[in-house]
C-alpha cells in the first residue's frame, strides 16, 4: 500500500521553516499563471464580464437615484389636490396623478389657496395649473413636442405627455430659467431647452399650443433647463390666468396647491393641519421622504433596466462560475504529475491546495479589477441607451459608491474561489507516487448517484413548472440543476446522434473529433453547460415574446369591432369637442363611439377600492367586443347603470341588480345599480384599457365628472364606404390635432409587435454577453485539451495526419460542444417558455414556438464552435512533430 512521504514539521519555537516553504509555493502558483498567458487572459475575461454586469447594475441604479435626489429635496412639503375619496391603497397615487394634471384628476376652487395660507405652519403656498392633454407645434403645424417615448416603461413614440401649466408655481428642483423672462400675458410662453433644440426654435418664435379648450398661438418668451432627469416630457409654461382659461378651460380653478412648511414643522405635521382645516374639500399628500418621486416614466425605465441588468448579472456570474470551475478542474488534472512532484519535494496537502487557491485568488482579483472598470463603461453605454429613449441624462453622475468595489471584489473573488474550491481539494489529495505514473483526468463516465439525483431533480422541477405561477421560478432552478447533473449522461447519448452523419463523410478525422468529445464526458458537459444556460434563457424569452405577440394580435382581431380607434397611441389623452366634431364630419363615417375615463372610488358592502371609471356611448359593445358574463351591457350604458368586472364584483360580493356607490374626485357619492358583468381579461390581453375598470354611460360620467374630456373614439365606416378611404380622410381631418393618432387593426398590431421587438433587442443584447462568456469557456477548454494531448497530436502527425486534418479535428470537437450546449439550452428553454406562457397571468390563448429563431440559434452555435476553435486549432496544427513526441 502506498504511503506518502512525510516532511518533518518545524519546531513550535520557530515558524521560519513554514514561511520558507510557503514562499516557494507562492512563486510556483504565480509562475504557473505567468507561464500560460492565453489561459490567464481567457479566465480573467470571464470573471471580468461577470463583474461588469454586477457593478454596472449597481452604479446605474445608484446614478438614477442620485439624479432624483435634487428633485426630492426641493419638492413641496405638502401637495393639495382635489378630493380622492375612499380608503383604497391607491389614494396617494391618485393624488400624485391629480397633482401632475392627469385626465379626470379634478380641480380645486381658486379661493382655497387663501385658506391654505392661513393654516399655522405654512411658510409659502402657491396655486398650480398643470395638464397633460396638450400638444405643441411650430407655426406651420409641425409637431415639436416629445418625439420619442420610454418604451421600457410601456410608453411609446408620441405617448410621452406634454406637461403644460402655470409659471407662478414651477418646481424649483426640476427647472430653472436660463434665457428670456417669465410669461406675461396670453401671447407668451416658456419652453424647456430640449424642446427648443428639438424644434430648432429660438426666443421670439411663434408656437401653437393644442389644448382641449382650443388651439392658441404664443411667442417664446423664455427657456428653462432641467435640473434633474427628464423623461422626455415637453414643458410648456404660461401665466396662471392663461393656463386656467386656455389649458384647463375652467377660469378660477387650480389643479393643485404647492405648500412649504415653516421652520420646525415637519411635512407630516403640516399635512395633518391642512387636512383638518380643509376637511373633505381636498386631499393632501406629504412630500416623499425618500426623495425618489421622480419625473413620470423615468423611475419605470430605471427600474426595468436595473431589474434586467441584475437578472443577467446573475446569469453571467453563474456562467462565469461554471467556466472557472471547469478551467481549474482541467488544470488540476493536467498538472497531476507536477503537483505530485511538489509533494515529493516536501509540500503537504494543504500547501498544494493553497497554491491552486492562490491562483484562483490572483485570477479573481485581476478579473474583478478589470470588471470594475468595464462596469463604468457599461454605465456609459446604458446612459446612451436611455438617452436615445428620450431621457435627459445631463444631470446623471457616475453613481460610484463605497458598495461598488465591495460588490466587485466580493463577486469576482468570491465566485472564483468558490468555483476553485473543489479542484483545490482534489489537488491536495494528489499522492506523491502519482509523479511516476501517467497523469490525466479519469475517463470514467457519470456516477450512478449523480444520475439518480439529476433524474429526481428533473421530475420535481417539471412538476413545479406544471403548477405554474409562483412555482415556476423554483421549477426552473430545479430543472437547470437537473440538466447540469445529467449533462454527462446526455453527452454520451447525444454526441453519437449528432455525429452520425458527418463521421462517415469526414472519415478518420470525424471519428477522432467524436472520440475526443466523448473521452471526458464530464469536461464536455461542464463546458456545454455554460452555453446551455444562456441559450435556455434566450429560448424561454423568445417563446414568451412570440406567444404573447400572437395572442395579442388574435385578441385584437377578436375584440376590435370598429374600423378605427382615435386616441393616444399608448395611454389616455384628452380629445376636445372640436376634434370630435371634425371626426363626425368626415365623409363615410357611420358611427362614432366616445369614451372618457376618470378616477373613481367604488364602495359596496362596507369596502372601498380606488379604480378607473370608463364612460362610453351605448354603442361600445359593438365597437369593442368584450365578453359579458351577466346582464346587458347596452342596456346598462343606456339606463344609468354600472358595468363591473366579474373579479371586482366577486371581491365585493355583488351581482347583477346589486347597488354600489361611485364617487369621482371632487364629486358627490352616486348610488347605481349593477346592470352587467364583464369578464376580466388576463394582464396584457386588453387593448389599451384598464383590466378592472367599471363602466357607465358617457352622459352619466359627464355629469359625475364635468371636467373630463373624451379620451378615445371608436369610428366605424358607413355601410358601403371604403374603410381605407375613410381612414385617409380621418388622418387629414385630424392633422391639426397632433396629440391623437388614428389606428386600425393592422396599425395597433404593428404597435404591439414594436413593443415586443424593442424589449427583445435589449434582452438579446445582454444575453449575447453571457454567450460570449460561454464561448470563452469553449476556447479555454480546447486550449487546455490541446496542451494535454500534445503527444497524441504528435503521433497523429507522425503517422500521416496533415495540419489541415488536425485543425478540422479540433474544430469538430469545438462545434460539437457548442451545438450540444445549444441543443440542451433550446430543450430547456422551450420547457421554461411553455411553462411561463401557460402559468402566468399573461395571454394564454396562443402558443407560438419561434422555429426560425431556434434554427438561427443552432446555426449560431456552429459559428461559435468554429470561431472558438480558431486559436486552439492553429496551435495544434503548428506543433512540431519531434517536440510533440517528446512532450511530457
Automatic annotation (TrEMBL):
It comes from the Bacteria. The keyword Transmembrane helix applies. Residues 12-21 have a biased composition (Basic residues). It is found in: Cell membrane. Residues 311-429, 766-880 form the ABC3 transporter permease C-terminal domain. It is a multi-pass membrane protein. GO terms for molecular function: transmembrane transporter activity. InterPro entries: ABC3_permease_C (IPR003838), MacB_PCD (IPR025857), Macrolide_Exporter_MacB (IPR050250). The chain crosses the membrane at residues 308-334, 355-382, 402-420, 452-472, 478-503, 524-546, 761-787, 816-836, 848-871. Pfam families: FtsX (PF02687), MacB_PCD (PF12704). Keywords: Cell membrane, Membrane, Transmembrane, Transmembrane helix. One of its GO terms (cellular component) is plasma membrane. Residues 1-24, 82-109 are annotated as: Disordered. Residues 41-276, 524-732 form the MacB-like periplasmic core domain. Belongs to the ABC-4 integral membrane protein family. This is ABC transporter permease. It comes from Actinomadura harenae. The lineage of its organism: Bacteria, Bacillati, Actinomycetota, Actinomycetes, Streptosporangiales.
